[in-house]
Amino acid sequence: MDHMGIVSLIPPILAIALAVMFRNVVVALFAGIFVGLLIVLGPNPVSTSMSMVTDHFAPVVTDSYNAGVMILLFFIGGFVALVETSGGGAALAAKAARFINSRGKGQLSAWLGGVLIFFSDLGTPLIVGPIFEKIFDRLRLSREKLAWILDSTSSPVAVLIPFIGWGIYIMGLIREEFDREGLATSEFTVFVQAIPYQFYAILAVTAIPVVALTKTDFGAMRRAEQRVRDTGELYWPNSRPLRRSEGTGVESMTEASRPIVIWLPLLVLFVILFSILSTMGFPAEPVPGEDFRAALSTAYLFAAVVLIALMLIFRVKRIGDILSTYVKGMEKMISVVLILVLAWTLGGLLEEMGTANFLVEMMAGTVPAFLVPVLIFVCSAIMSFATGSSWGTFAIMIPLAIPVAFGLDAPVLVCIGAVLSGGIFGDHCSPISDSTILASTGAGTDLVDHVKTQLPYALINGGIVAVSFLAAGIIESPYIVVASVAVMVLVYVVLSRWRSQQKTTPAQEAALATE
């Protein structure tokens, strides 16, 4: 195989190390690219910089596929910003609040709200959290439980959806690697086929109704729930919530907005998207990536127009403020586009250096193909935990995982699922993750309390996922996820029964919470 030997590992290792050290994926990717080009072109920083711009960045940015992805991300960013500031989600929840009269309904309603706000992983905690915090207080449900629900319905939901920013971003990375392998398979098809292997995201989302319906709490979460039930105290004595609500929850929401402000634009988005796709043979026939992106861009544009019209009709905001919000939402996607451009560039450089060929040559005959998915899952989880960034993990690991999977004859779809699962798992456990911080903020709880109560659930799910990838490496079957969910339910119920037999006083509970 053609490769530059062990030096071909320097760019990705450097990128990973810098991402962990500085928690800045942009700097890490840029440094990996620059050092890699110094190795390829020679130790001349001036000529290397010129080549990096003219021979690597420019072709990536001007590529028609990549340009289509970037344009779509801008449309998505503008629409999401409008949704987050429209008040439609709050108005919808306010209508439903009168029907939420039990602890189980409260948890399921917050879960459903998080799932419905699937188009904004970072917006979910800040939209759903303030709406439900007072509902949870009234039902004597802990703020820690709300933070866990918010965290489990943000990125774990978003990563499963192919037609939002997450899916477009991931499909862009997949397409680039499939092109390098000379495969014309639609990246949309690959993403959809890999969904059953996103074990961690599926377990994280399904765990919430399991806990709500079976009333199973354990570990620090059980202590938090007992605190609220027994004493009515929202926080432990030493807790420092990231946000304390100023208003009265649902009752304080603006009267200007209406539920139609959120559900009608989403309906328009889906109707237009699937109407266009149906003319192309979807779902019976695969839709080319270029046509899919064009249809999705059109759908988001028309949905934004409807949303703007509704905001004007109900006088939610003035037209100048609305348009400013839309533009600012598009501007927020610049960092995402920058990461994508750098990831595409690093992937092309690694191909030029033969990094994947070297890894395949080193691992061939020593690492069985069935172990590749679980190893990828572990590596992705460690990197995501250390950096607090699942997107950065995807950018570095997908360009390595796909060619290695092809080279070692490992199941490619399973390996893609392993990268995505590892990225979400590490992000879910990390106290420096933006989703962890935002979930704590949205629920109005202490960050450390949120991490302590969520970690047992995440670790149990992560252990089940690791075994699932071991099984999927042997038997590439999408039905393994069914067994994974069944095992999770069994483990949760057993743990709950065991913990329920241990009686503690409120004073002991408070002491345990400070450990």
- Our measurement of the CA-to-CA distance between the termini, rounded to an integer number of angstroms, reads 54 Å
Count of individual domains: 1
Coarse structural class:
mainly alpha
From the spread of the alpha carbons, the general shape counts as globular
- The amount of helix comes to over 70%
Number of strands: 0
Order of helices and strands: HHHHHHHHHHHHHHHHHHHHHHHHH
Count of DSSP H/I helices: 25
The major beta sheet can be summarized as: none
Radius of gyration over C-alpha positions, nearest whole angstrom = 23 Å
- Beta-strand fraction estimate: under 5%
Mean pLDDT: 85
Return residue spans where pLDDT drops below 50 for at least 5 consecutive residues. 246-254, 511-515
Explain this structure to me?
The chain is mainly alpha-helical and 515 residues long. It has one domain (5-513). The chain is built from 25 helices and no strands. It has helices spanning 10-22, 25-41, 45-62, 64-86, 88-97, 103-116, 123-138, 143-152, 155-158, 165-180, 187-194, 199-214, 219-231, 260-278, 289-313, 319-331, 334-353, 355-363, 372-387, 390-407, 412-429, 434-443, 447-474, 480-500, 506-513. The longest helix is centred in the C-terminal third of the chain and has 28 residues, at 447-474. Residues 246-254 and 511-515 have low confidence and may be disordered.
